[in-house]
From TrEMBL:
Signal peptide stretch: 1-24
Catalytic activity field: 3',3'-c-di-GMP + H2O = 5'-phosphoguanylyl(3'->5')guanosine + H(+)
Keywords, alphabetical: c-di-GMP, Cell membrane, Hydrolase, Membrane, Signal, Transmembrane, Transmembrane helix
SMART domains for this protein: EAL
Its EC number(s): 3.1.4.52
Topology class, membrane: Multi-pass membrane protein
Protein name (record): cyclic-guanylate-specific phosphodiesterase
InterPro entries the UniProt entry points to: CSS-motif_dom, Cyclic-di-GMP_PDE-like, EAL_dom, EAL_sf
Record GO terms (molecular function): cyclic-guanylate-specific phosphodiesterase activity
GO CC terms: plasma membrane
First-level EC class: hydrolase
Length: 530
């Protein structure tokens, strides 16, 4: 009987643990699914708003260029030059010269005036954060357009007419497409564009996800029928419950033991002390020739047992715990040691590494970077710092000063994840970076979505105006390469050439590429002679 009591106690503890963990698992899984749905729909709403902001950025840059060329007149030669400008920028449908009150003086394509159902006075236009820029809806018989007014002097202004293509907003996941709609409107409620599979269908129990622009009077809304959220992305529920029950049973078994449990931060500290974080190298290549022009180093955690931990499993914790700075310097030092012979042999080769904004703006960052690179006997102009646009730069003036100091010393700065982050391109220009990296989100759809092509073309055009170079991330197919080249992108990065590789394999890749290029050279020379 006495022997049976410990077993009975163990069973009770196991059942109690399973019941407690099952309840906690249900609450946690339900909350997690709801939070995931909210986060994903918030991100999709943010993407709609960013796409719209890019369209306005593009129109504004176009108007500024026309004004700088002295084309803000109705002279035939000026109108001809404006028509050529509009032809080269498909997103802009017309450019009009207007009086200070907003009334039209002349239009590059005067026939488009016939499609206007009305034209608003300046008093009805909406101001932007830039006091010389105003937005308004242009009601036309073929569908509404967006007017972007840019003041030129005190007595006149230029207006770009942007066609709002509903396909720009076709971003809904397949499961939600028939149960939701995407809207773009001005802050006064004037609707500019809408995407819905069935425009006549009314959502029974709608829930709205809304984002407003801080720079322009624009508002993006995703409206979803609440009932569909009960089944969307809920596959994790039952696996989570199974895990909760298993953990509950394990917890019951371990209740009788006392064991010192160390947290994951302690694991990071031990890994840093042992040097377990290793740089993996992913090539950055010329889209036209395939030549490797540089690489980005990406963190991998190689445990003592040989397992490789992907960055998503430790980078967020490293950032939140403050270990990311020590990890960044450790990775950079190791990468410089590995790649130093190649960097010295090829002065045009670039080594890129990621740095979070908080680290870059921290005390002593520039001095530590200079000493680290100098110790490796590598040229500063071969080092590129990638600052992600997903993390907001709270102090743009301070960031611009640090970037200016880095560039004075020869370093280059790239803005990562452009197109899905916090900054408009006008802010990116203010930061003073050398390069923008187009997020994989756009590369994935560039061959199947015409609206993505338009956005990439706008990014390239604006980057060219800001004297920046462009790199496309996540390139995986030759079809994507051709589409990117047609948009004007010069360089790419992605699995088409190679996944992130340990240095030994990356070195083998560069050797094999050079050998293949050398073998192909005589054939090219013979063809040229012939």
């Amino acid at each position: 009987m006495k022997a049976a009591r410990p077993k009975l106690s163990l069973v009770v503890l196991v059942l109690a643990g399973m019941a407690a963990f099952a309840l906690a698992g249900h609450i946690a899984a339900t909350r997690f699914i709801r939070d995931q749905q909210t986060r994903q729909l918030d991100e999709l709403t943010e993407v709609v708003l960013r796409r719209s902001e890019f369209a306005v950025d593009f129109a504004t840059a176009s108007l500024d260029e026309l004004a700088s060329r002295g084309l803000a007149t109705c002279a035939p030669a000026s109108l001809q030059a404006i028509r050529l400008h509009v032809y080269q920028r498909s997103a802009v449908k017309d450019v009009r010269l207007v009086n200070s009150d907003g009334s039209v003086i002349c239009s590059a394509y005067s026939e488009t005036l016939e499609f206007d159902k009305g034209w608003v006075d300046r008093a009805d236009m909406l101001a932007s954060r830039d006091s010389k820029l105003m937005l308004f809806r242009v009601e036309q018989f073929g569908g509404d357009a967006l007017g972007v007014l840019r003041d030129i002097g005190d007595d006149k202004a230029l207006v770009a007419i942007l066609g709002i293509n509903s396909s720009l907003f076709d971003i809904m996941p397949a499961e939600l497409r028939a149960h939701g709609e995407v809207l773009l409107a001005l802050k006064n409620g004037a609707q500019l564009g809408e995407f819905a599979l069935d425009a006549d269908k009314t959502l029974a129990h709608p829930i709205d996800f809304e984002k407003s622009s801080a720079r322009y009077p624009l508002r993006a809304v995703i409206r979803i029928d609440r009932s569909v959220l009960s089944t969307w992305n809920s596959d994790v529920y039952w696996p989570a419950m199974a895990v909760a029950l298993a953990l509950g049973a394990l917890f019951g078994v371990l209740l009788s033991r006392t064991r010192r449990m160390e947290g994951p931060v302690a694991d990071l500290d031990r890994a840093l002390a042992r040097g377990e974080f290793k740089p993996y190298f992913q090539p950055i290549f010329d889209l036209h020739t395939g030549e490797i022009r540089g690489c980005e180093i990406l963190a991998r955690w190689l445990r003592e047992d040989g397992t490789v931990v992907p960055p998503m499993n430790f980078i967020p914790l490293a950032e939140s715990s403050g270990r990311i700075e020590a990890m960044t310097w450790q990775l950079l030092g190791r990468a410089l040691a590995d790649l130093q012979p190649h960097l010295k042999a090829d002065k045009d080769f670039k080594l890129s590494f990621n740095v979070v904004p908080k680290h870059m703006l921290g005390a002593g960052f520039v001095e530590t970077l200079r000493s680290t690179v100098a110790a490796a006997r590598v040229s500063a102009r071969q080092i590129v710092l990638e600052v992600t646009e997903r993390d907001e730069l709270d102090d743009l003036a301070r960031a611009a000063a640090v970037v200016g100091e880095l560039r004075d010393y020869g370093f280059r700065v790239a803005i990562d994840d452009v197109g899905v982050g916090h900054s408009g391109l006008s802010r990116l220009k203010g930061l003073g970076a050398n390069t923008i990296k187009i997020d994989k989100f756009f590369v994935d759809t560039i061959t199947v979505d015409a609206s993505t092509t338009t956005i990439v073309e706008m990014l390239v055009a604006l980057a060219r105006d800001f004297h920046m170079t462009v790199v496309a991330e996540g390139v995986e197919t030759e079809e994507q390469v051709r589409a990117l080249i047609s948009c004007g992108v010069e360089e790419g990065q992605g699995y088409l050439v190679a996944a992130p590789l340990p240095f030994a394999k990356f070195s083998e890749l560069m050797v094999s590429r050079r050998a293949a290029s050398a073998a192909a050279a005589p054939a090219r020379d013979s063809a040229l002679v012939a």
